[in-house]
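If you are new to this repository, start here. Below is one unmodified record pulled from the training split, so you can see the exact layout before writing a loader.
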Amino acid sequence: MAKLKWGMIGGGEGSQIGPAHRLGSGLDGLFDFTAGALDHRPDAGRAYGQRLGLTADRSYGSWQDMLAGEKDRDDRVDLVTVATPNATHFEITKAYLEAGFHVLCEKPMTMTVEEGEEIVKIARASGAICAVNYGYTGYSLVRHMRAMVARGDIGKVRVVKAEFSHGHHADAADADNPRVRWRYDPAQAGVSAQFADCGIHAMHMAAFVCGQEVTKLSADTVSAIPVRVLEDDAMVNFRMDGGTVGRLWTSSIALGRQHGLTLQVFGETGGLRWAQEHPNQLYHMPLNGRLQVIERGEGNLSPEADRTSRVTVGHAEGMPLAFANIYADLSEAIRARKEGREMDPAANLYPRAEDGLRSMAAVFAVAESGKADGAWVDARPPMFR
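And here is the target side for that same chain:
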């Protein structure tokens, strides 16, 4: 089976996210790293691309050069990953979708709801795939959790509780550090800081696992370090279209928390609990039963979990493997289109542009509710109301 061709924009030398994408895309031998525009500094981007193995003619100085260079090639890239600063996502994703490229965009997909709706419309009109990298949904046991909910193992879901809280921005003396300060600056970050950065991961995971969408929310937001304009802590209550009640806490000043992404789902006949820092275990408490520990890689799990478990039971699973599962989903989706067949339903789980749009609508809803002392507001994008 020939590898698909993959290109990357952003994610250059020193990038936090670039290595995870390169590891994830190449892990299963499904994609070949073929083209890239890796840095906003053209010479640095070209040089780094060639050090990573790109040929000189496909290591580009800018995303515009890469678009011009790839769009008319017979062997052009099959998938483009956009891993640039947030404010550039819309422009780049739009241009590549309009040229017929499949795109995986880092979150947030856009900076406004209106931009998000435009991306959804362009993707639908072009027929190109537009995925958004909510990479934590690639974890094997998160997918098993979703399968358990869908097949009714815990009955109707009553409450979902999501957290994504860390303490890495808790030092007030570090508030003027440029690497931290921009996150709380509306001119660079938009209307939200911590919720837009981490909270939307937790909210998307709640929707992914429960198979429901958020309809309305109420938010209490605070800047615990007073010089920050945007929030560094938020508590969000929400309601979902299937009747589930949601609770979400996200914070960047929670000293003692390292990553903090956790999800708990409470149904009529059972409860489930998973934490990203301990991804090999899923805890299941049946009604009137005893606590069960489900291990990643053990037998008799769901097809969704079996497909996305690569290392033997008892060994650690990490974020690049979760990213690799998103890339494996996209490979299957692209190949199915090329071959004119239905894709494997166990792989049809990659986050779509519609998910990116819903997240952006939630970001603006949290900002609006936080300013209105927690008033309940509609969390749906206008096109989905």
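Two things worth knowing about this chain: The chain has a mean pLDDT of 96. The longest strand covers residues 157-165.
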